[in-house]
């Protein structure tokens, strides 16, 4: 009887703490980001095929390069062109400026959740593989900032970053007692997720943007058309960036 009560109590406490933590994380989204005293912020940049990479490079060109460094570029495993463009961009920075601070830029690839034309049944397995790969990359990189602008490649990464924000409940069980503790997974830091919707999206968010908006995973979501901001009030209108 006592053991059964302990199990029920543990389940209630676990659920309550988890719900409270999730609500706290959600409540922090769309709020102004606290200014950091750190001089450099490790930044994970998610690239996508087509116009996504062009828009991202254009956005990076007007950012404070020395502050958002080191930079880690990630593209889908089947997208070599985007990483080539990122290589060219970084080489241009090396030629034009002598930036102070960390410059160990890295270029990585991640499995796609679903290829174009792939059946939804088989995409279940590839999605799980993409999540596992995203987990490994997030543990390896531990970015302070995640910057993305539409490709579906960003969803597994943002999902893992959100889970790390929620943290994990750990417990030990020994005769007669259940001990509960909150701890942060493997020392993963809070990663701020900034999502900039593509300029091509005038009336509706892309599927990636819609997921991040509805699930409140993005800390800040920016749109480039005023009518889009009216339809999604928690988004921020920043004007045309291209």
Write out key terms for the chains shown.
18% strand, 242 residues, 43% helix, 7-stranded parallel β-sheet, two-stranded antiparallel sheet, alpha/beta
Question: How would you characterize the largest beta sheet?
Answer: 7 strands, parallel
| Sequence of strands across the biggest β-sheet | 3-2-1-4-7-8-9
Give the DSSP E fraction (strand runs of 2 or more residues).
15-25%
How many H/I helical runs? 7
Shape: globular
Mean pLDDT: 79
Would you report the number of β strands? 9
Overall radius of gyration: 20 Å
Give the helices and strands as they follow along the chain.
HEHEHEHEHEEEHEHE
Which regions are unreliable across 5 or more consecutive residues at pLDDT < 50?
Answer: 168-187
Q: How much helix is in the residues?
A: 40-55%
- What gap, in angstroms, lies between the N and C termini? 66 Å
Q: Which secondary-structure class do the elements indicate? A: alpha/beta
């Amino acid at each position: 009887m006592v053991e059964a009560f302990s199990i029920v109590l543990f389940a209630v406490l676990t659920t309550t703490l988890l719900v409270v933590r999730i609500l706290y994380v959600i409540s922090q989204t769309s709020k102004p980001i606290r200014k950091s005293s750190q001089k450099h912020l490790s930044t994970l940049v998610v690239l996508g095929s087509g116009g996504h990479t062009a828009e991202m490079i254009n956005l990076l060109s007007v950012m404070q390069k020395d502050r958002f460094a080191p930079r880690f570029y990630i593209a889908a495993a089947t997208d070599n062109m985007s990483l080539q463009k990122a290589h060219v961009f970084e080489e241009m920075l090396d030629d034009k400026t002598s930036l102070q601070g960390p410059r160990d830029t890295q270029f990585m690839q991640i499995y796609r959740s679903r290829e174009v034309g792939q059946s939804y049944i088989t995409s279940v397995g590839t999605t799980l593989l993409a999540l596992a790969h995203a987990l490994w990359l997030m543990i390896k990189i531990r970015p302070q900032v995640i910057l993305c602008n539409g490709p579906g490649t960003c969803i597994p990464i943002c999902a893992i970053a959100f889970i790390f924000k929620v943290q994990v409940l750990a417990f030990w069980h020994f005769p007669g007692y259940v001990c509960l503790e909150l701890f942060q997974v493997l020392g993963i830091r809070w990663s701020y997720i900034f999502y900039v919707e593509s300029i091509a999206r005038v009336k509706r968010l892309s599927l990636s943007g819609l997921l991040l908006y509805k699930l409140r995973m993005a800390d800040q979501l920016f749109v480039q058309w005023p009518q889009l901001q009216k339809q999604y009030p928690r988004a921020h209108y920043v004007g045309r960036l291209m």
